[in-house]
Each structure stands twice: as C-alpha cells, then as structure tokens.
Specification:
Length: about 200
C-alpha cells in the first residue's frame, strides 16, 4: 500500500509539473504570437516587378516635417510650372488649388484677370521653378513655412532668372487622391520675386 501511495503521489506531482509546463509554454506562445502580429501590422509589402519590397508604417508625427516640405514643393511645382498651352496651365493650376485654400485661388484669379496666362500662351513663354529649400516650423500649429526658389522664364528671345520667396501656413485635412499628404496651405503669400539675371537666347 505504501508503494502504491508513493507511486500515486509521484504520478500526481509529475502530472502537475507537466500541466504547469504546458500552461507556461502555451502562455508564452500566445504572447509571442500577439507580439509577432503587432510587428507584422507595422509592415507593408509592395510587389514591384515581381519582387516583394518591405515598407514600414510609422506614425504621422514622425514624418510631419518631411511630408509638409513635400506638400509645399508639390504645390509650387504645379502653381509655377507653366507652358504655352491652355490645357497644361489649367491642369497644373487645378492640381495646385487642391493643395491650398482661397488665398492661392485669389492670386490665380488676379493673374487671370490681368491676362497673365493669356500672355504666357500668346508669347510662347515657358516658366519653370527650382526649389532651393523649404523651412517648416512644426513647433506651433498651424505649421508656418517659407519656400526659397528660383524661376526660369523662357521667352522666344531671352531667358529670365528670378528669385522667389513665398510663405504661408499648413493645416491638417483629410488625405485624398488629390491631396495625398493631408495638408492645406493657408495664407499663401509671395514675399519676394526679383529679377536675378537675363540672357539672350542664340
């Protein structure tokens, strides 16, 4: 009877040990699985030319300055890049006005009323812009910005170089196909737009 009692205690102790071990292993497996799922949710895989590329998700606050600078650059490229083609002008201006409020629309309306765009078309003038730098102050909201750029105005007989300094503020809005960064430019204003040089075309 003593042997049976000892054997029963031994089996019971061993069984409890095995059950405890199984519970600990199961809990650890569940924990690691949840941790892996959370890590995987921060990753996006993009298929490009038959290759899987891994992209990492991040919080918006981590990229505010980068996205804001790109938003300002994109707006300026659309608003100030002009060719002697009415469709090109309308397409670029429409894309630009999705990124800004009525302060940019007022500038566009004033230029249109003064026949600026008609002069671009009739004079076969092309205008391009090169962004030198964009400074963003993200310490206060809405975020203030300044854009330093140079313009090239190509006429039939000459090329005019001009400096361009603009400023404004950025407000958060919903992202969309027309506004992928989710910012809206407010109080847009041209601070400086001086002639730098002019050269005769050969």
């Amino acid at each position: 009877m003593k042997n049976i009692d000892n054997a029963f205690r031994y089996v019971r102790g061993f069984s409890m040990l095995v059950i405890s071990g199984c519970i600990i292993i199961s809990c650890y497996a569940v924990y690691k699985s949840l941790q892996t799922v959370n890590l995987m949710q921060d990753k996006v895989y993009i298929l490009a030319n038959g290759k899987a590329l891994e992209a990492y998700a991040s919080e918006r606050k981590d990229n505010i300055a980068v996205e804001a600078r790109d938003h300002v650059k994109t707006f300026h490229k659309f608003f100030f890049t002009l060719d002697p083609d009415d469709k090109v002008i309308k397409t670029n201006i429409t894309k630009a006005l999705y990124l800004a409020d009525d302060s940019a629309k007022r500038i566009y309306d004033d230029l249109k009323e003064n026949n600026f765009y008609s002069g671009i078309i009739s004079g076969n003038i092309s205008q391009s812009i090169q962004i030198d730098s964009v400074s963003i102050d993200i310490r206060e909201y809405p975020y203030r910005f300044r854009c330093y750029a140079r313009q090239s105005i190509i006429r039939t007989t000459s090329i005019l170089k001009r400096s361009l300094l603009t400023e404004g503020a950025l407000r958060n809005v919903s992202r969309s196909d027309n506004n992928p960064h989710g910012f809206l430019i407010e109080r847009f204003n041209t601070v400086d737009n001086r002639d730098l040089s002019a050269e005769t075309r050969k």
